[in-house]
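pinned: reference chain
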Amino acid sequence: MMRDVLAAIIGIAVAFVTVMLLQMLGHMVYPPPAGLNVEDTQAMSAYVSSMPVGALLFVLASYVIAAFDGTFVACWIGRAKPFIFALVVGVLMLVATITNVIMIPHPLWFSISAVVGIIAASWLASLVAPSSAQSGASFE
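pinned: its structure tokens
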């Protein structure tokens, strides 16, 4: 049980680090305007509405890839059924993403793609991850 909790926590951490790293890469390719205050929702809304599609695709990719690799890592470490980890990591990613798109309006295509992509990525990772529950492998 404790191993499964730890696996979920590590999976969530991996997901959030992935988001951070991929969005940092996106900011190198598509730098935000100088002096942008990310705490100001009006300024962020204006920025997001003027972002190039490529910049939005970096953000979308960060969410989807993070949902996949966070779920994958949690399934690999944990002993619970892989779908449990897909739910834990996927739901947390969904909540964070939906909160973000509510607070800062994004294009409709982005919002739909993010929700569908996160669900699909978490589910797919739960299917392909080498689970210690399924293989009987021991990492202790």
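why pinned: Residues 136-140 have pLDDT under 50 and may be disordered. The two ends are 14 Å apart (CA to CA).
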